[in-house]
Amino acid sequence: MADFRATSPEGEVIEYTATVPESAHLAAGWRIEEIVVGETLAGQINTDPQPVFGGRRDLTKLEFVQLLGEQAYAGILAMSRESVAVEAWVKLIELAAPEPGTAYSIDLDDQRMLPGLTAIAAGLEGAGVIPSATAWVEGIIRG
Amino acid sequence: MANKYIIHGATYNGDGTTSSEAASNGAAGAWNTIDYMTGTTPVYGAINNGDTINIRSKSSAGADITVTLAANITLGKAGATVGSQITWRLDGGTIWPGINGVLTFSSSGAYYPTFEDFNVFECEVQDAMAVVNTASNVSVVVATWKQSTLRNLLIDWSGQTGTATGRFTCGITASRKMIGESLHVKAGALYGGVFYVGTNSSGVSLRTPDIELTKSDTDPVFFCSALQNYISVFGGRLYGLGAISGAPLCSNPGGARASFIGFDFPIQMPVCSGPGSQYGGTIEVFSPDGGSGAVYADAWGRADSRDDGYYPTCNAQYPNSTASGWSWRVYPNGVTSRVPMEFAFAAKLFTDSAAQKTLTLAFLVSDTYAGLSKAAVWMDGYYIDDTTGLSTYFTTQSTGALDSSSATWSANTYGAINLLPRQISITTPTAVRQDTTIVTRFCCTSPTVSSDDIFFVDPDVLIS
User: Inter-chain contact A41–B279, Cβ cutoff 8 Å?
Assistant: First the structure.
């Protein structure tokens, strides 16, 4: 038995399960499809973009700089020389202390993270340092 | 290396070695499931590197085949190599006469297929193998493209007309090259770009693509988010509502290099939305207009000579049947003192007897463009010294106001922009050698304030 979807010349869709399609649905003007469910199978490679640090949301400062990217990091430092707000953001990163018992000072899920990155990203994109503010922020938040 | 065969839905599952349905399970005959294309290991026979798997484009029952995604899937088989790729070929009547169907990988949500490394996916009939996404209200990756080749496929998310967006992600890990031949893309709303190249040193090479942007958007067609990305397009076209609504062709050149030769796109589409960064990216376009026009974008801005721009012209003429005039429209919207425009726009063969010569460049500049002087706008270049035979540099950069010009232009306005005729001249200090090339650059360091701050440059530098 197989699943079929028949679309009439007028666009009416009929779905059914059968051994073979109804003969009328093989006529000119009809489109008949045999539907197969594609599934992820054991052993297939996971092709989703993977977080850099295995999904860990708490990072060291150096790991955070790695996520920012070399060019963006340089761009942020350049912007900090002209903007008190950007300098303040950089200072916050510098002043952040590790969580007790860990080496991690940066929390990607901190509620200030996304607004701060978004504001910085706009400046970086405007300066041509990064092609897309949206993509840059997305990559950092993904971890 | 062998031909293998799939007839989806056949009664028995053969060993894949013939194009006929098997008489029993494991007998010589076609495999009977499309699942072998999505990662399942054949029960009988095997898929080996170098094999071509021919797929009947209709099921045994005579229906088109639609694979509905319930999760992300991988198309093709892992483990192929650059020297021994696996080809998945959708037949259109050559092997199975009269059978001309469609194989569709369909998603209505966030699931997508990935084209596996070193696998080739082709269909005998254009668009007969398709990836279609009809998701609404969620940004999606329509498909992911690893280091594989796609021929004649259709990638379609044109049904996304609302807030949902899609993109074709190119490259999962660094240093991938994706190859597309006669790829047909129907894009709806965009999620970062149509072709989204997201990893370092990865690139996309397209031959004769057909790209339709069905919806207005601001995201570029080719998006490069990492360094050392490259885009190479030869032939093909871009059209549709989204192509004339202001979306750029590329993301701003950062560290990426993009080359478009004979790729037709409308003049309403800027090659990029802004200047590049200082990291060396460029965009080079030849014949986007079916003629001899060109476009160049760099960190300093962009210049173009599109035939359909109908720019004011002066002396330069194409060697075509009508000797039509042409010029460069130059928009240096990224210049600073550290990022000067140094636009090598002319190379002229000097054929007279050796002598000192005066070079005169004529150009038009908008009357709104402030801060211009001989210090901020100049011509430089080189010629071959007749005595030494060495390349000799020259520059007109100095001080003072730009010289007025009496050269005759076809127009002194462009739309609402009023243009002032100016010129730059220099006499070579030594004799120019006969039958050598004089190369000139148009240079500028004066920042623009608006998109009206433009030049029109005559490529025909007069030699007198």
Answer: no
The CA–CA distances, whole Å, from B42 to B5, B116, B418, B441 equal: 12, 17, 71, 63
Q: Who among B69, B252, B274 is closest to A38 (CB)? A: B69
Integer-rounded Cα radius of gyration of chain A = 26
Residue A102 to chain B, least CA–CA distance (Å): 30
CB-based contacts of B266-271 (< 8 A; 24+ apart in sequence): B266/B238, B266/B239, B267/B306, B267/B308, B267/B309, B268/B243, B268/B244, B269/B238, B269/B243, B269/B244, B270/B246, B270/B302, B271/B295, B271/B297, B271/B302, B271/B304
B111: helix, strand or coil: coil
CA distance B404 to B360: 12
Classify residue B353 as exposed, middle or buried by CB count within 10 Å of its CB (0-12, 13-18, 19+).
Answer: exposed
pLDDT at B198: 66
Closest approach of A69 to chain B, Cα-based (Å): 10
Tokens 């002396």, residue?
B315
pLDDT at site B175: 62
Query: Is pLDDT larger for residue B134 or for residue B420?
Result: B420
R_g over Cα of chain B:
28
pLDDT average, residue stretch B233-251: 93
Confidence band, pLDDT 50/70/90 cuts, at residue B6: very high
Distance, C-alpha B422 to centroid of its chain: 35
- Spatial distance between the Cα atoms of B11 and B9, rounded to a whole number of angstroms: 6
Full-model pTM: 0.80
- What's the confidence (pLDDT) of residue B279? 60
Per-residue pLDDT, B273: 76
Question: Residue B118 gets which letter from DSSP?
Answer: T
For residue B225, the model assigns a pLDDT of 60
Contact pairs from chain A to chain B, CB under 8 Å: 119
**Interface-testing mutation among A34, A46, A48, A142, with chain B (most B C-beta atoms within 10 A):** A34
**A113-126 helix and A133-142 helix, angle to the nearest 10 degrees:** 140
> In whole angstroms, what is the distance from residue B238 CA to residue B245 CA?
13
Measure A35 CA to nearest chain B CA, in Å: 5
* Vertex B457: Cα angle to B456 and B463 (nearest 5): 155
